[in-house]
Amino acid sequence: MGKTLLQKVWDLHTVRTLPTGQTQLFVGLHLIHEVTTPQAFDALRARGWKVARPDRTFATVDHIIPTRERTRPFLDVLAEDMIAALERNTRDYGIRLAGLNDDRQGIVHVIGPELGLTQPGMTIACGDSHTSTHGAFGAVAFGIGTSQVRDVLASQCLAMEPLKVRRIRVEGKLPAGVYAKDVVLTIIQRLGVSGGVGYAYEYAGDAIERMTMDERMTICNMSIEGGARVGYVNPDQTTFDYLEGRPFAPAGAAFTRAKAWWSSIASDRDARYDDDIVIRGEELTPVVTWGVNPGQSIAVTGRIPSPRESGTEAQAVTDALGYMGLESGQPIAGLRVDVAFIGSCTNSRLSDLREAARIVRGRHVAPHVTALVVPGSASVKRAAESEGLDEIFREAGFEWRGAGCSMCLGMNPDKLEGNQVCASSSNRNFKGRQGSPTGRTLLMSPAMVAAAALAGEVTDVRNLVAEPVAGGLQ
Amino acid sequence: MKITRVEGTALPMRGDDIDTDRIMPARFLRAVTFEGLERHLFEDERTGSVADGRATSEHPFDDPRYKGASILLVNRNFGCGSSREHAPQGLNRLGIRAVIGESFSEIFFGNSLIIGMPCVTASPVDVRQLMDRVEKQPEAVLRVDLQAGTCEVEGFRCQVDIPSHARDALVAGTWDTTGLLLDRYGEVDAVAATLPYISGF
Predict the structure, then answer these.
(1) Residue A472 lies in a domain
(2) Helical H runs in A58-98?
(3) Fewer CB atoms < 10 Å away: N or C end of chain B?
(4) ipTM surpassing 0.85
């Protein structure tokens, strides 16, 4: 009987079984950022421990930093303190830092892959739940809390319990205007926001195999929104082509040897899965969330559900409708939006920006909409500017910002105000998520956000992408 | 510290899929310590001035009858979303010593375990029973016994479950894992040496 990628990587990284029955798992790459690490470094100091493998640790700043005015010291004293703490901690312990003005800076889940730090077959940990993003490369990557960050800093290991594996095959061609974001939102809607607890999600099928690394990252990124701490795609030629030539990827003969090893850790054909489901790609539509968790979504052509038709979810639906100010039966299309946000670790990569720019080119943002584009990294920003995407966005009335987490999470100056409605390419529509306790988030693909910005309301992007989309969907 | 039993009054917080953004809004993560987080639990859904204790909302965390509770009662998929340890840290600093729920997000469960705060599961029916009883009789004392796998409250007793590794770690006092992971560091180096990406292929 064959093994899954998860089992292979797990076995290769197992140090021993702890007295509690947990696995002591070696962590191949530890990514750190300013928000979830200061207490971990303090704990290290208090106990007199050193960082076990600074050479396997890499830091950047993303969560708390402003995306507009980036002069130091920041006006926000708390943000300044957190950045200064990371600078001090990385200096004291000899950890590489892509700091605010470093040309490698960016959202941790964007820069790990683009620097080639993220590679197939690794175990990767980071104090952020969207670490599942790195699974797109065939790594086993999971989010951890601050005390576990301390564990990894001190020992380069984690105490973990084994996961089951659910294979999710997406088969068939995605229609024009349907993106990776729509695929993963559909998966979460069908399997539920807690359906993945205890599982790693292996994404497979020909639709996934045809996807670019950017698209695979979007899918794996949101695994955690379905309850799965880990999501991955088996590495293939697309993965290898992406990695070749990246700064931290192996080069020359080492790259050839690496490819052989990377191929060997993919799931075997006869691997056994704890669960196996199929999603038909050609049936998918652009999706928009209407509620307060990422599982509460409908097709852009759909109507807001009613509590009566929602069975055991009736109370949750009532609660969500109240928070969102929506009525059952109301079409989601036509819902007025105040803010349009293109960014976050889910959808801020070059291909996302290209696709959004293709839609806004020569058009203009509706007068009542505040629209912003926040590239995922300094490198994405440079690449987009070299293609003139920044000009397209600016001319259309979007703000063009510096790289960071921005309006995804209400931890920096980019926030919703009052009960503004935001069309957002981010990953969470939780109550208060975007920084206003009454703010309302509608999750959708970056192309759909671009379309909503132009229309000033939720609208079906398929009406704007009539021509076949070669690059954008591939 | 060995944790085998948790006793105390309880605080029922109803609702499925309560995410960590709700438990601890992101702006309170903007600090280099966990100190004072207990003052900001569920702050965005509590009205009035929470920080100075004058809140007047209907929110369970504002209800004076549940003040001093050491056991939190929750429903399904509690603590989903962000990996922020600030959520369990805030609860723990408020005085919560155990959480009983229908189910938990994995990251929240792990973040709670590593600070010695057990999250135990009970059936939906039993969780409803416990919540109903506590709402009727907030002064009732719950007794959670991790080894027996039970929760008792004045004339009612139900089964509670926790994965054996977590129970063993709590009972043995080894839930703070760093020491354990450093115990045989030679073996860590040995495993690292077998990984092609560590040696540069």
Answers:
(1) no
(2) 77-93
(3) N
(4) yes
